[in-house]
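User: quick one, sequence for these tokens?
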């Protein structure tokens, strides 16, 4: 009888615990969207770009994008050469060589390179931002800034969001241009006689709607790389031992959001 009563009590607590967990999950994602909206508004405000904020933003871009631009470009170029060769050889074997360039542009430049740039910046900068902001939150650095009359969001957090977004866009843009050049060489060789067909095909692929969608997706990737780790860090209780938990939670959420954004982009284009 006692076991049945205990089982009944345990089962009766399950809906309440699930409801509490769901509310906590919803509240955490609401804070992500709220912080992202605030960061976007501040990023568009000229008042954000004072001397100190420009220095933080420039430092973020330097360490995240400029330092690694040659190596990332080389890596993406090697990957592009391999994929271009595979696509060209496959289309030739099936008699579909006229679609090789379009396939390369759609798969490589529109889909893979922006995602690769976001993942690269996430691994290089996202985890570092997550750890740095978590430790600042635990030490009470943001409270000290408020007492000094400074806005922590404008002074410390928004420049990191701007720097990450610019870094992802810059890496994706440079690598995409290199991939398009390699695509021409892979399809037409070094002959100039393919320029007319090349420009016509690329113009058909990158129409206004597709170009705007690519710019929006890449920017959202860049914003997510900073916003989600920062929000996870600010949600962490002020205990040093919980800082690694905040980093892990932030990176898991980030990879989930990147996958969802990529899936939504594919669905809007091809479904």
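Assistant:
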């Amino acid at each position: 009888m006692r076991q049945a009563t205990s089982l009944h009590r345990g089962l009766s607590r399950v809906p309440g615990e699930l409801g509490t967990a769901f509310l906590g999950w919803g509240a955490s994602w609401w804070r992500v969207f709220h912080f992202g909206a605030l960061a976007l508004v501040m990023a568009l405000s000229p008042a954000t770009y004072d001397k100190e904020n420009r220095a933080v933003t420039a430092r973020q871009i330097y360490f995240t994008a400029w330092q690694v631009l040659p190596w990332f470009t080389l890596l993406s170029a090697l990957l592009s050469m391999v994929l271009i060769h595979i696509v060209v050889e496959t289309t030739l074997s099936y008699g579909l060589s006229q679609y090789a360039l379009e396939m390369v542009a759609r798969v490589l430049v529109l889909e893979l390179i922006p995602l690769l740039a976001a993942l690269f910046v996430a691994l290089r900068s996202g985890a570092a931002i997550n750890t740095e902001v978590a430790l600042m939150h635990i030490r009470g650095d943001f409270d000290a800034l408020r007492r000094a009359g400074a806005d922590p969001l404008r002074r410390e957090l928004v420049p990191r969001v701007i720097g990450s977004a610019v870094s992802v866009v810059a890496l994706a843009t440079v690598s995409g241009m290199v991939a398009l050049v390699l695509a021409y060489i892979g399809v037409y060789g070094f002959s100039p006689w393919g320029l007319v067909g090349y420009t016509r095909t690329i113009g058909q692929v990158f129409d206004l709607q597709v170009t705007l969608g690519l710019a929006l997706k890449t920017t959202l990737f860049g914003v997510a790389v900073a916003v989600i780790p920062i929000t996870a860090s600010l949600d962490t209780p002020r205990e040093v031992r919980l800082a690694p938990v905040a980093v892990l939670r932030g990176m898991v959420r980030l990879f989930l959001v990147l996958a969802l954004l990529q899936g939504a982009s594919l669905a809007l284009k091809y479904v």
